[in-house]
Specification:
By secondary structure, this protein is of the alpha/beta class. It is built from 21 helices and 20 strands. The strands form 6 sheets. Strands 1, 2, 4, 5, 11 and 12 form a 6-stranded mixed beta sheet that branches. Strands 18-13-14-15-20 form a 5-stranded mixed beta sheet, sandwiched between helices. Strands 7-6-8 form a 3-stranded antiparallel beta sheet. It is globular and about 85 Å long. The N terminus is likely disordered.
Length: 736
């Protein structure tokens, strides 16, 4: 036997979906050298710094190299909406001002500066690479960027330039439809291979600002005897295309235009203008669209949308579908053209796969079925992540297969029984195209990016110092409710906290990091000197709390050891059980979790719910044998476990985990009032008031008389108003 070659250290490939409104990234394990790939590896999503799968394709700019990226940009105050750059993918690669944007001057009173959209995209790509490093501790060795097929030909050169500004090498570009085709092959490759005959599939993607369609043929092929697999699947793209005429964001724009016209008739055109008005109206349209999936008509009250006036906005489903007619016509003609260009008859399609958030709208689904002459649409791919997962998978074709040693004489070579490898008949890569930034402009863009990073480092230091001072204030206010509060003068402590807060909003708004650090040192020393007994008692109490937590962790560890010794732990339970048997185990764990929760044993309860979900995940082994009733039963139990986990993490004050589990419920049932309310509770604790209000509005649409929802919404709205008043005061100090 030949000696085994050393296994190369994993290096990741990175695939990024440059969608029209969001960036989604996925990674795949490659070999130790950048040109080596393991065929059996599958991609996984790269989460951003807020643990979200997608990052908004948006940047907002301020004076002095100040910027916010992604979620922070989308949440920018309405007063700065004119400096928000988003929805720019259709203009990527355009010449002149169409392919550029303006940002505020480096100093107050200076002239605005024009930068290329390539630079804006580069800022967001840097963040994706940082997210990858945070998740797996390595930088990408290969990068595949997927762009909508409706983008300009010069967009390929634009995204390559953006990657260069971001400092990323080894870049290839493909259409998002190419990535979808590859991911569909990964998802269904085994079934296609078992079928043994070519299968032709139509995939339609209705995203935020674009729609696309592709027809691909998957052909199983027997490979040579010397190969390490029995067969492979050839992918042939027969036709593909796209446009920026239909999509969820475009549907929002249509609704926004409709509502603006109604407001202009009622209040006049002068009252319905400006960046702030449009920003708030667009936000309202997003909420109305979500409500419309639950109630008809959808209604919403908006405070001061018109100066000094509150407005009630409403829309019916019939109005909505009438507004969408022109966009739907573009989608219909796209599908018709793709079918015609491919030469494939509708009857020859094995499946029509639909992805994209815009495809959830019922009238959109009707158009797709009518245009493709189908009565059933498939939803087997993850709508939000499919392109990114496919782009990461395509990294395998960027690289080469891992070398396999030839068998020695008399040795029987073992064949891989995994998913057959996928190979494109055509070259999947896009050429650079015409245009692009000059070398001089690229160098200038790289230098400007360095200036932004320097500014951000300064702001991070200030933010850390400011947070520390605010935390001190909050802790002293909380001390007034402490069991050792008899050692404090409540009037003195309250007055000191108020004085420090006022300083933060006045002089502190423009203070340096060092000034903030000095202020904290000064105030904390003064407080500890004045109330020495209180701080000594609290120190002893904290020491005792830490000891109790340690003892609790030791108990949990011992419990886990006992479970493992008794064979109760099912982490390695790979038995293929009948549905009824596996479901019974899951239900038993759920019931145990509920009993533990009732007794206040929250961490053990969470473990039981997680074990229940683990059992449910193993139903995949018998999925094809499950009835519709079985699927519904499993789904309901999964919803219950995730909902209970959200409640557990609320009790444990682990707000992000509570939101994550509530999100999983909403993905399964977007009208689950419990999950929406629990997500809103966690968001209020994280000061995400606007998002909490959206959840609470949806709760009220489902259960209008829920007193708890009404009370929490009032609290969130009050917090928003207080924040806005403080922000006005701070900006008036900063800018006079």
């Amino acid at each position: 036997m030949m000696a085994d070659a050393p296994t190369p250290a994993p290096r990741p490939g990175l695939g990024i979906d440059i969608g029209s409104s969001k960036l989604v990234a996925a990674t795949i394990a490659l070999g130790g050298e950048s040109a080596v790939v393991t065929q059996g590896s599958l991609p996984v999503i790269v989460r951003n710094n807020l643990s979200n799968d997608a990052t908004p394709l948006a940047v907002t700019f301020g004076v002095g190299f100040n910027r916010e990226l992604g979620e922070a940009a989308i949440d920018t105050p309405a007063s700065n909406a004119h400096n928000l750059v988003s929805g720019f993918v259709p203009r990527l690669g355009a010449q002149g001002s169409d392919g550029a944007c303006k940002i505020p001057a480096a100093e107050e009173g200076g002239d605005d500066k024009e930068i290329r959209l390539e630079q804006v995209l580069a800022m967001l790509l840097v963040g994706q690479v940082q997210n990858l490093y945070t998740q797996i501790g390595a930088a990408p060795s290969q990068l595949v960027l997927a762009v909508p097929p409706g983008a300009q030909p010069s967009a390929t050169a634009a995204v390559c330039t953006a990657a260069r500004i971001a400092g990323i090498d080894a870049v290839r570009v493909c259409h998002s439809t190419t990535a979808l085709v590859y991911h569909y092959g990964e998802r269904h490759g085994k079934d296609i291979a078992v079928g043994g005959v070519p299968q032709t599939v139509l995939i339609v993607d209705v995203g935020h600002l674009s729609c696309s369609a592709v027809i691909a043929r998957y052909s199983p092929q027997v490979v040579a005897e010397s190969a390490d697999v029995d067969e492979e699947i050839l992918i042939e793209i027969l036709a593909q295309g796209g446009n920026f005429e239909a999509g969820g964001g475009i549907f929002d724009q249509v609704l926004s235009k409709h509502l603006k016209e109604k407001l202009e008739k009622e209040h006049g055109a002068e009252a319905c203008g400006g960046a702030k008005f449009h920003f708030r109206l667009n936000k309202t349209c997003e909420r109305l669209k979500k409500l419309l999936s639950t109630v008809d008509p959808a209604k919403m009250d908006v405070d001061s949308l018109i100066p000094d006036k509150d407005c009630r906005l409403s829309v019916t489903r019939n109005e909505w579908e009438t507004m969408l007619a022109p966009s739907l016509a573009h989608l219909r003609s796209l599908i018709t053209k793709i079918l015609s260009d491919s030469g494939v008859e509708s009857a020859a399609l094995v499946a029509v796969e639909v992805v994209g958030g815009g495809a959830r709208v019922p009238c959109v689904q009707d158009v797709i079925m009518t245009a493709s002459s189908q009565t059933l649409l498939r939803h087997t791919l993850d709508s939000s992540a499919a392109v990114a997962l496919g782009a990461a998978g395509v990294c395998k074709t960027f690289a080469v297969a891992t070398p396999v040693a030839a068998p020695e004489e008399g040795e029987v070579k073992k064949k891989s029984k995994g998913m057959p490898p996928l190979k494109f008949v055509q070259d999947p890569w896009l050429e650079g195209g015409e245009g692009g930034m000059s070398e001089e402009c690229v160098v200038e863009a790289i230098a400007l990016e360095a200036q932004f990073k320097e500014r951000e480092q300064t702001e991070r230091e200030k933010g850390t110092a400011r947070n520390a001072l605010e935390t001190f204030v909050y802790s002293m206010r909380a001390a007034l409710e402490d069991k050792h509060k008899e050692h404090l003068d409540s009037a003195d402590v309250g007055g000191t906290c108020e004085r420090i807060e006022n300083w933060l909003w006045d002089e502190g708004a423009v203070a340096s990091a060092q000034q903030l650090v000095d202020k904290l040192e000064e105030e904390s020393v003064a407080m500890k000197t004045k109330y020495e007994m209180f701080f000594e008692e609290r120190h002893l109490a904290e020491k005792k709390r830490v000891q109790l937590e340690k003892e609790e962790e030791e108990k949990l560890a011992k419990m886990a050891e006992e479970e493992a010794a008794n064979g109760e732990k099912d982490d390695h339970d790979n038995r293929i059980l009948k549905f009824a048997d596996r479901y019974a185990l899951a239900d038993k764990n759920k019931a145990e979790g509920t009993e533990l929760f009732k007794g206040g044993n929250y961490q053990p309860a969470a473990q039981r719910y997680i074990k229940s979900l683990g059992h449910l995940s193993k139903l995949v082994h018998v999925e094809s044998l499950m009835s519709e009733e079985d699927h519904a039963q499993a789904k309901n139990l999964k919803i219950t476990c995730y909902n209970n986990l959200a409640m557990v993490f609320l009790k444990l004050q682990m707000w992000a985990k509570a939101i994550d589990n509530a999100n999983r419920v909403v993905e399964l049932d977007d009208q689950n009032c419990k999950a929406l309310f629990r997500r809103a509770q966690a968001r209020v604790q994280l000061k995400e008031m606007e998002e909490a209000i959206v959840d609470l509005d949806m709760c009220l649409a489902l259960e209008p008389d829920d007193a708890g929802v009404v009370k929490l919404k009032a609290q969130a709205e009050k917090e928003v108003k207080v924040r806005e008043e403080k922000a006005k005061k701070m900006y008036s100090k900063m800018f006079g």
